[in-house]
Amino acid sequence: MKISVRDAWLSALCYADIFDFPLTKEEVVYWAPRRILGRLRRADFSGLCQTQTIGETTYWALRGRTRLIARRRRREICFREKWQQATTAARLLRWIPSIVCVGVTGGVAWKNADQADDIDFLVIASKGTLWVTRFFSTLILDACGFRRRPGDTDVQDRICLNMFMSERTLSVPFHERDLFTAHEVLQMQLLWDRHNTFSRFIHANRWVKKYLPHAWGKKTQNSMRQLADKTLRQGRISLWPKSYHARRKTFFASRLLDLVLRFESCVLRWFERPAKIGQLWYMEKRRSTEVISDTVIRFHPVDARVWIKLKLASRLRKYNIPLDKIFYAS
Length: 330
Description:
Structural class: alpha+beta
Mean pLDDT: 86
Shape: globular
Number of strands: 9
Radius of gyration: 22 Å
Oligomer: single chain
Strand content: 5-15%
Helix content: 40-55%
């Protein structure tokens, strides 16, 4: 995709502006739809965007939108409580052996949620356990008072289980690959995973580097770093001398836990078909725009891709930037 540095910079700001989210310079580079190398001068964007420095942080926004900086800082304070709520709820889901990854998506993942907002979860299930995983996830979070229920008006800090994926198909379907989905993939924040599922999810969707090359590079580096840190914590590699027996005991304990979890997941597969039939029957009169298949269950009352594309087009038009070049990397 050939695009000038100016257009890449403005495109990143335009996309973030849809969500009332000014960016720092590092974030603009991170979310730019092309690689930006070298130094950039504010004079190059005179009359197109504005900056404001608070403390040691300089924020960039489209012209006339610097008032959003104060809103972003307020939302960052809200994020701390929401993240704590998310980690607490995610720990409960560890009891379900068929879950191999839990992540936060949506506004909370971008530290851009208001106090009254809920928290979106993406759950990845082991092969052949998609529906039974959803059943037990809903049951546990509902029983503990964490889940957002259909029809709730007060959804503050509630967990919205709006997407389940099977590890059998971690890559996004070809017809959904665009800038919107690339953002959703790379914005996801990991809460916990098993069997390096998060790293496999990122690499299965390496097509996103065509849309957001900087973000893709950083995300893969972070996922590899998290994998290395996890390996060290599990005791499979030691930077310091350790007794042979201690290392062997830690290794076998970890392997035994993996085998137990895999066995329990196999048992749950026996209940997959009745769980699917029962939930589809319950959802029959309530279905609207859900996406349901053998590998994905996705609940979104409104297709965000549609309105985000329209708002992005209106912003890019002001700077004579073609939408298709940015949204579809054409």
